[in-house]
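Researcher: Let's do a round of design. I'm pasting the structure tokens now; please hold your answer until I've finished.
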């Protein structure tokens, strides 16, 4: 690797972190110098919190199937839904199929002014840690997990396309809040948990946070809190922690934004609370997108495009049908709106997003 460094391939700001792992040495790169996470030359482990994978069996199977068929898979979903944990779980499951190893690049703390060259250097450093793909050991397939690309969409997509073209032994797994529109990418949507799975996850996390709390006989309250939080895993985690100091009845009376305001020191700055997470996504929107999102935050129920066209105040927000369709489509792609596909598509906003958007008004 010295030759690459002498050629100026790497800059000092790209910091490599080595961690001991059951399979050997873990290697992970972050552009910011922050500890970059969990990765290994032989596979990525999902961590000890396997209860986070409750209800994700089908998602894991879909992602694994995609990586068997396609060299580039992107996990898309709102902040807090568990994309990164799923990516690690899949990499852990498939590590035996990637004899060349698994590398992770975290872009979550990378500023938006980083260009394609910076992202390319970070990915290459992660890969070259165990030897270059395409060299004498290139017959071994490699997997690179690139986490949190939504704020670096254009340079990250170009880097992925270049990697696929130059390294035929390389597979890519990306996580993003923003769907990737590029040839060759397979998108797997990661959605909040259905109520039954959300209840199971919530009870697991309650047991972990407060083992002496007995919720026997409070099934209806558990169901209600899970529905109130839209089955979003990170929101359920926070609510479980809240039960250490507040009763479940108190939580049910509280606004969602108050429930999810508990910070986590383990997350990235824009992910320490769900309020900060939504605010960060909102900050990446244009003014027209924000205006429509603020208008839609007043809709308590799911809606169709036809419903929006029938609103008398619609023209004050967006002037014509094509423009309305474009903005709604973009908000879906950015995971700010959820869509239920059928003969007529129905759109909705997660409760915590709705409440935060109202604050931002």
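Researcher: That's everything. Go ahead.
Model: Designed sequence:
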């Amino acid at each position: 690797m010295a030759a690459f460094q002498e050629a100026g391939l790497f800059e000092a700001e790209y910091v490599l972190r080595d961690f001991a792992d059951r399979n050997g040495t873990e290697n992970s790169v972050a552009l910011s110098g922050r500890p970059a996470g969990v990765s290994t030359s032989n596979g990525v482990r999902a961590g000890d919190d396997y209860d986070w994978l409750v209800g994700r069996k089908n998602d894991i199977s879909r992602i694994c199937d995609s990586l068997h068929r396609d060299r580039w898979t992107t996990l898309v979903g709102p902040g807090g839904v568990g994309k990164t944990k799923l990516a690690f779980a899949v990499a852990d499951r498939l590590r035996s199929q990637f004899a060349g190893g698994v590398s992770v690049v975290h872009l979550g703390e990378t500023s938006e002014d980083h260009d394609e060259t910076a992202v390319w250097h970070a990915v290459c450093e992660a890969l070259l840690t165990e030897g270059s793909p395409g060299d004498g050991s290139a017959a071994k397939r490699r997997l690179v997990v690139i986490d949190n690309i939504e704020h670096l969409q254009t340079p990250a997509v170009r880097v992925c396309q270049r990697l696929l073209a130059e390294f035929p032994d390389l597979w890519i797994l990306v996580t993003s809040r923003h769907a990737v529109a590029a040839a060759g990418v397979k998108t797997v949507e990661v959605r909040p948990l259905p109520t039954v799975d959300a209840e199971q996850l919530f009870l697991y996390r309650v047991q972990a946070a407060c083992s002496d709390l007995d919720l026997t006989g409070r099934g209806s309250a558990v169901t209600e809190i899970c529905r109130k939080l839209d089955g979003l895993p990170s929101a359920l985690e926070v609510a479980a922690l809240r039960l250490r100091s507040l009763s479940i009845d108190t939580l049910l009376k509280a606004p969602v934004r108050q429930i999810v305001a508990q910070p986590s020191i383990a997350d990235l700055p824009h992910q320490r609370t769900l309020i900060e997470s939504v605010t960060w996504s909102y900050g990446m929107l244009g003014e027209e997108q924000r205006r429509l999102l603020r208008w839609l935050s007043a809709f308590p129920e799911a809606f169709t495009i036809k419903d929006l066209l029938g609103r008398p105040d619609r023209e004050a927000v967006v002037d014509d049908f094509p423009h309305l369709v474009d903005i709604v489509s973009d908000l879906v792609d950015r995971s700010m709106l959820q869509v239920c596909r059928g003969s007529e598509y129905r759109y909705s906003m997660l409760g915590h997003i709705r409440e935060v958007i109202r604050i931002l008004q």
